[in-house]
Design a protein that fits this description.
catalytic activity; DUF2848 domain-containing protein; mainly beta; Fumarylacetoacetate hydrolase, domain 2; five-stranded mixed sheet; eight-stranded mixed sheet
Length: 228
């Protein structure tokens, strides 16, 4: 278990809260459009990563991999980030945040589950209440920027109408009981513009154009040597 401090922003204002996270899940292959989903599968196949056993698929990782730190350390130069919306069960509510499913791509070529466990999973320390977003969920935007060779480029961008609806994603993974309290689930990602590649820094955000809110976060990637 890990405890993470967040600021919850709702229509009533901002509240500080610390949430115990007991379970972390990475939902993969969650695209609503099978053409777009298959494009991302093909993107990973191009770098040697096998097709998933099912779509969607739910990978478990240690909750202690979740962090709001602005710097992570990774072994070697084969890892990269992916912006994802994050659902967190808390006191009977479902809260929404944004994070990066930072993954070791070299390990991913032979075992996806292990690759998910290899790297920390950065989270922004802000949340929204899903109940306030139901009427315009599909309009919410995910976006990421990668700093590569000193240049910051748009890496991913898309609206949530490209992903399975949050309630369907939860029901497929957890049944009709909803997202359990203390569970954080990453909800999937979009194809990278220009292909998957490592970066020295990864910035990501989620934007609600209806309520005029944005959550930003980012982190530097420190590369640790692989000596044997």
């Amino acid at each position: 278990m890990v405890e993470i401090a967040f600021t919850l922003t709702t229509n009533d204002g901002a509240t500080e809260l610390t949430l115990p996270i007991r379970q972390a899940v990475i939902a993969g292959w969650t695209g609503r459009d099978p053409v777009a989903r298959d494009k991302h599968i093909a993107e990973l196949e191009a770098i040697g990563i096998a097709r998933p056993a099912s779509t969607p698929i739910y990978y478990r990782v240690s909750a202690r991999r979740l962090t709001t730190a602005e710097r992570i350390e990774c072994s070697g130069r084969h890892s990269s980030g992916e912006v994802e919306f994050v659902l967190i069960g808390a006191q009977g509510r479902t809260l929404l945040g944004v994070g990066s499913d930072h993954t070791d791509r070299k390990v991913e070529t032979y075992n996806i589950t292990v690759s998910k466990q290899m790297c920390d999973k950065p989270l922004a320390p802000q949340l929204w209440d899903v109940a306030e977003l139901e009427g315009h969920w599909d309009k919410i935007i995910l976006r990421s920027f990668a700093t590569i060779d000193g240049k910051r480029v748009l890496y991913q961008e898309g609206t949530l109408d490209g992903m399975l609806p949050h309630d369907e994603l939860i029901s497929r993974g957890f049944g009709d009981g909803g997202l359990p309290d203390g569970c954080a689930m990453f909800g999937g990602t979009f194809a990278a513009k220009g292909g998957i590649r490592p970066a020295s820094r990864f910035d990501y955000e989620i934007e609600d154009p209806v309520l005029n809110r944005v959550i930003h976060h980012g982190y530097d990637v420190a590369v640790l040597p692989v000596v044997g």
